[in-house]
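step 4 of 6: structure.
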Amino acid sequence: MSKPIIATTSLAGCFGCHMAILDIDARILQLIDLVEFNKSPIDDIKTFTKECDIGIIEGGCCNSENIHVLKEFRKHCKILISLGECAIMGGLPALRNGIDVKECIEEAYLKGPTVGRNTERILPNDEELPMILDKVYPCHEIVKIDYYLPGCPPKADLIWAAVVALVTGDELNIPYELVKFD
Amino acid sequence: MKEKIISIVEAHGSDASRLMDILLNVQSTFGHVSAEAVSLLATMLRISEVDVVQTLSFYHFFSTTAVGKYAVYMNNSVVSCMMGMKDVVDEFEKQTGVKFGNTTADGKIGLYYTACIGMNDQEPAALINGIVFNELNRQKVRDIVAGMKVGIPVQDMIAHYGDGNNANPLMKSMVHNNIRKTGAVVLSDYTLGIGIAKALTSDAKSVIKEMKESNLRGRGGAGFPTGMKWDFCSRESGVHYIICNADEGEPGTFKDRVLLTERAYMLFEGMTIGGFAIGAAEGILYLRHEYTYMKAYLENVLKDMRIKNFLGNNILGRGYNFDIRIQMGAGAYVCGEESALIESAEGKRGEPRNRPPFPVQKGYKGKPTVVNNVETFCSATRIIEKGAAWYNTLGTSESAGTKLLSISGDCKFPGVYEIEWGMSINAMLEMVGAENVQAVQVAGPSGICLPPNQFHRKIALEDLPTGGSMIVIGQQRDILKDVVLNFMEFFADESCGSCVTCRSFNMILRNAIEKVVAGHAIKKDVENMQAWSEILRKTTRCGLGQTSSNPISTTIKNFPELYDARVKDVDYQSDFDMEKSVKASCEVVGRSSEVHELAKVNIN
């Protein structure tokens, strides 16, 4: 049997969850024995070249491109995992939820103290740019999500335990310490 | 303004624990409590402005902006909607030219919604400047608004007074009692003073013993044995208090309204007996704001009882001193919970306390306190008068005595009925003239929605416990939309916000049932609603959160077909709408709709 294929992406996240994946340290050598990577920042494959078994999503959806990528993942992956607070609940970016999107954009590009000299008062509106959503959405509100791994970021041991259990079919055994945050 | 506020504060002894009364006074004097007033109150009461604001912001009938010279509070609870609230609302909006939630430009008329005002047997009803307007229709609304426009005082708009004490010169209310059935305990003939004379000629221990033997259980809904409560409290040392919970807020309940109107003496006598039993010198009647129209009458009853020496010093020459003051609420359902009520009576936000310690140990001002419902105290008066053995001949083996029911909704004879515990729902429906009944909401929103195949069940603490609210729901009603959604909106509004799960899950469940009603829900949503209801029930401090998911959980259980008919049997469904969600940002940055449409094609 061929190795299971994993894809990963970071949507409206900070790449911290991907850093946490790398935190498995030397186990990465075991990992590449167990699985193959397809579309992912880890191997820099930009578009799906194969149908995948597991898709790991970091970050929620704050713009139209995030939605597009997430839907692509759902299309190409058998199992989707929301990895970390932002994917699960919107996280830090969702702090803007509840604030009018107009106010957010004006603060970011016109009024904010770090804006600098935007003397022409330009708001980014190039066709190439993704469109900003009215709020930040958690992934499960856009597509079906099969599993959730909590944390900000989730601990490497948690990611490791979950991925290995999924790939090997062994029982998932998560010690309380791995999902205890206070 | 300053002078008036100073005199209000001084009239309350500059006591911060009387903040509720002070704010109510300021609110009614100025039509709102301004920032300036807050700052002045804080200085005078020697508390911080935040302390004033936290109480001010908690209650429905306080406002920081002017509510209008005529403030209309329209009841939008289930039965009001059933009885035609929509037309009344429409007529108010038409005649005033403003939508509900607003005040007319001249500041004359403000229109607001409020939760059940205890008039379910005479809906649609509204409070206008604290005065009840019942059985409203389009014509009445036209007359009322016409009167407002020419400045007629609200009191003068009342055409006919109601029956009994509603017509008392101090009440002058158009409320009807609608007493449909009198029973042996609270609504039978009553003579002031028999119970109290009997109690005072025996001793506190004997009174408690009699109460315990009567097996009377609390009539507010929880059914805690009254004698036991009095016993626990009497064993504590120091100053004791007795409080009557007249914060009748459970939608559909209005029986205490009738007792307060027709049995005020009996209630105060019961409180005095209770005070004597536990060793209290001070009693408080916590009266819900919606019943402000009774206050002058009740004050006069207290005055009369003092004159007759049933209250005050050396009552009936037996050396017992006891008096009662009336504490007004300001509109908060959660204050029906006894520890929240105590907080509120102390001038604070009505947030329930952690227990233990229980109020009988540490209650009002940290002292041992008994809190009982209006009907409980009235029953106590009768029990002391006629004896525990007599009382036990009424009702069932586990629920002694009678119960007042407030029955409303789709029936011919809505009103107050005093029944013996043990009556079946079928018998009750026959009694009230209800046909083609789809369901009965037993014990209000926090109770259960009962289907016809359970109508054989008995109204009793051991089977169908109730504080008295019974809403009959006819076949023509859409239970999920007309009843469940309305109830969940109520709970989402009324959660005090202290427990995280109560604050958030009531809102989430409200949104979930709205989704079901709109036909957008899938099976998983209903499963989630069940799971979340369970979490909410288990993780909240007081009865509100522990029961607020009942409208959903009992209808999922008893009326699964209503959900099946509206819920899609698919694995997953997203409610996300790309077009809608990017609209605002595209407008802000000036992106054309063509680009947006193009992007949409790409994405899908």
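step 5 of 6: annotate
 - The mean pLDDT of chain B is 95.
 - Chain B touches chain A through 24 residues (CB under 8 Å).
step 6 of 6: archive
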